[in-house]
Amino acid sequence: MLELAILGFLYDAPLHGYELRKRISALTGHVRPVAESTLYPAIKRLEKAGFLVRTTEPGAVAAPRHVLSLTEEGRTELRGRLSDPDQRDITDENRWFTLLAFLRHLDDAEAQAAVLRRRLAFLEEPASFFYDGDRPLRAEELGDPFRRGVLTIARATSRAELRWLRETLDSLSG
Q: Which of 58, 72, 86 is CA-nearest to residue 10?
C-alpha cells in the first residue's frame, strides 16, 4: 500500500520527501500513520528498482531539498499495479481506498472497470463480522448494541459504495 501511494503521488507531480509523507498521511494516516522509518526505506527500494529518481534543489531557507520524480519505468509499474491489484487491495478497505485514489492513472476505461467489477463482486458476497456457526449474522439479530452498530454502519457504507460502483461502471461503459 505504501509503495502504491508513493508511486501514485509521484505520478501526479515530483515531490520532496516531507511533502510526500504529508500526502500519504492525509490519505492513509488516520489508519496507518507513515513513519519516516517506513517511508524512506520504501523510497530507497523504489529508487533502487529504477521507478523513481532523486534530484537536489536548493532549499528556500535552509539545506538543499531532495525532490523525487517518477521514471517512465515507475509510471509503467504504477499502471501495472493498478490494472492487476492483489486481492488484498480489493478486499481490505484501506488498501482499496489507496488503489482507488490512483485508479484514474489507468488510461483504459475497461481496465478501470475490471478493477471496479472485482470490488463489486467482493461486496456482493454475503458477509458479516459476526457469525452463528457458518451463517453471517445481520444487525437486527444482535442484542449487543455495539456489535449492532458495527453492522449497521458497515451496511450503510457498503450500500453507498455499491451504488457508487454501479453508477461508475455504467458511466465507464457508456
A: 72
Q: Which residues pair with 57 in a beta bridge?
A: 65
Q: What is the C-alpha to C-alpha distance for residues 109 and 111, in angstroms, rounded to an integer?
A: 5
Distance, CA of 82 to CA of 62 (rounded, Å) = 37
Q: Is the distance from CB of 8 to CB of 78 less than 8 angstroms?
A: yes
Of 35, 69, 56, 51, nearest to 3 by C-alpha is: 51
Q: What angle do CA 120, 75, 109 make, to 5 degrees?
A: 35
The model's pTM is 0.85
d(CA 90, CA 17): 28
DSSP code of residue 138: P
CB 70 within 8 Å of CB 78: yes
Instruction: Return d(Cα 96, Cα 161) in angstroms, integer.
Output: 12
Hunting for cell 487491495 — which residue is that?
Answer: 89
Query: Which cell numbers in the block locate residue 68?
Result: 523525487
For 13-64, write each residue's pLDDT tens digit.
Answer: 999 888 998 899 888 766 566 777 788 899 999 999 999 999 987 766 677 7
